[in-house]
Amino acid sequence: MKYVDEFRNGKQAQAIAKRIAELVKTLQVSKQRPLQFMEVCGGHTHSIFRYGLAQFLPEEIEFVHGPGCPVCVLPMGVVDDCISIAEQPGVIFTTFGDAMRVPGSKKSLLQAKAEGHDVRMVYSPLDALQIAKQNPQREVVFFGLGFETTMPSTALTLQQAAKEQVKNFSLFCNHITIIPTIKAMLDSPDMRLDGFLGPGHVSMVIGSQPYEFISRDYHRPLVIAGFEPLDILQSVYMLVKQLVDGRCEIENQYERIVPQMGNEVALRSIGDVFELREFFEWRGMGSIDHSGVRIREKYADFDAERKFSMPRLKIADPDAAQCGEVVTGVIKPEQCKLFGKSCTPQTPIGALMVSTEGACAAHYHYGQIEIPLSQVVSR
Amino acid sequence: MKSIENLKQTLIGRFGDQVITLAHGSGGKAMQQLIDEVILPFFGKPSDSPLEDQARLPLPQSGRLCMTTDSYVVTPIRFPGSSIGHLAINGTVNDLAVSGAQPLYLSCGLIIEEGLAFAELIEILADMAVAAQAADVQIVTGDTKVVDRGSCDKLFINTAGVGVLAVGMDSGITHIQTGDKVLINGDIGDHGVAILAARGELALETTIESDCAALTTLIQLLLAEGIPVHAMRDVTRGGLATVLNEYAQGAGVGILIDEGQIPIKQEVRGVCEVLGLDPLYLANEGKVALVVPADFAEQALQLMRSHPSGINAAMVAEVVDDHRGRVVMQSDFGGKRVVDMLVGEQLPRIC
């Protein structure tokens, strides 16, 4: 497949891997402890596991899986709010597929659907708007989530709904924004990362400029990376090269997609529809200032938070679950007490076990090639 | 085939403007007319004697009977390249055929939602007749029910099948051994993509058609040529990954897939890339994964490729002593990864 296979060339990967291995040997620090690079985005986590990229890297380099999987950081209370909306008479509740399996305090949206509530999976918010136009007597709610990657399509949908006066359509907005979250991690006392792989699709929207503070104030390098295996390996090379050269910069490996100033049209739509919240609750990471957006007054008629009453309760994660420590890279998924025991992809307790982009699900599905047969069968 | 087509056109001409009502399942005159004038002309009667409540079939002279059943609830009932009618025959035929049996007789249970157009039902019955003829099986008994609107989605079909397994035929998961090779008879994922596209929820257009087909003659060819098949399963829901996991766990062996050998259409790969699906988990309806001893693998492959249902046959995996109970894929790219059983539905990633 053209434009895909070129970025999955095994020979080239071996060549880059060799250069990384040679380069990293020249670094003093890597002799005392492994270098830790965080891939912020869940899409990168997925590629790293799917292509077994860790097997290409020398043992001096470790990937730490970051918080950039939007369904993984959804707090349980938000899922409960979704279900309370879905259970109201006459409502058609729509969202992306991954969000339907995230456990709330009592059940998931998929279970609510099984109980008879009208919960539908859509591929785009515009599909939800279409459902609203086809069902004028029903209230259609779209549960919008994700980072700046999915924000523009939600914003455009609200603009469209306003223009066409689709009064039975509303958005339950749980979009989040990545920059304050990276900042919160950098401020954490546990912080020990040596560099970041920057999220490619978020950057396609926001550009590379918003990351400048990471190198300027925190002296960590960041390379905006594409999602194909060669993209990721090249980005790792660029990070190591910066460390070897004693540089600390924001670099862009994904130049074929990411412009420095981002996508102006998308940013304008986002700015028109959304404004920052004072704070937003992240699963496993707690409340982070200015890390979420809400709908501006101008679009209040389309705001599910104003249209529906919902419990808005803060539900703590089960005590034993260590999602927060996994999501910030303090422990590896299999070091969590519940991993593979009570928390599995079939019976997820934490959301990191739900999405294929979640670090725990990725470790569970793709990791551990050598598991004894007895454990496999007893699952 | 021509006579089935003619019959279809005649019946559509006669009943084309009518819809199924609850009366067609009530046991009265309307039902009798539906059975006598619409259903039986397609399926025929096993003998000239009057219709009884059961089919009476001769016992095979040797070997064992094989029996299976499957229900078909696919939506939409018609999709590129095939329909629920073809599926209801071929799916059950294949469940018998992968034991090495010769499928002979099928039952046909129809559960119809009131309001279904006669024309649609007639089309599906014609598809069943065509598929049964192609697979060389007879539909010998059946049942028709009509349910209220909303109690089923247009049409559900259950078919049970009976076949004869020759003396000495005894393939099965427990025969799988280290060193065996796994073969598949062609491109994976076509059925899954055809159904996805037919649902129209995605603004994607493809020319991919379902691979729905009976596997009997392909399998019988291999057996007739003396290939000592260790295990066979048809690759349906859950895709190739699921069957290989069943082999690995059932036999307590490791299976190593060679990604580069998996036959797949560029278009199917493209759809998977766009939607974030893994083709290893996509459904098929005319594929079998055979496990054969290494010494016979090349011969089996050539035989499959000589058959119309096996032109793109390939050797996709081998049975190994490592990672017992697990399926691992050697990727084109160079790394290895575990290919696990599917959890829930395969849901597209959101970013």
TrEMBL record, chain A:
Can the keyword Iron be found in this entry's annotation?
yes
Answer whether the UniProt record assigns the keyword Iron to this protein: yes
Family annotation (InterPro entries)? Hyd_form_HypD (IPR002780), HypD_1 (IPR042243), HypD_2_sf (IPR042244)
* Keywords in alphabetical order: Iron, Metal-binding
Family classification: Belongs to the HypD family.
Which NCBIfam families does the protein's record reference?
hypD
User: Mind telling me which PANTHER family this protein's record contains?
Assistant: HYDROGENASE MATURATION FACTOR HYPD, HYDROGENASE PROTEIN ASSEMBLY PROTEIN HYPD
Question: What is the protein's given name?
Answer: Hydrogenase maturation factor
Gene behind this protein: hypD
Automatic annotation (TrEMBL), chain B:
Q: A Pfam family name for this chain?
A: AIRS
Looking at the record, the residues that make up the PurM-like C-terminal domain are 178-329
Q: Which InterPro entries match?
A: HypE, PurM-like_C_dom, PurM-like_C_sf, PurM-like_N, PurM-like_N_sf
Domain of life per record: Bacteria
Stretches assigned to the PurM-like N-terminal domain: 52-164
Entry similarity comment: Belongs to the HypE family.
Per its record, how is this protein called by name?
Hydrogenase expression/formation protein HypE
From which source organism is this entry? Thiomicrorhabdus heinhorstiae
Q: Write the lineage as a comma-separated list.
A: Bacteria, Pseudomonadati, Pseudomonadota, Gammaproteobacteria, Thiotrichales
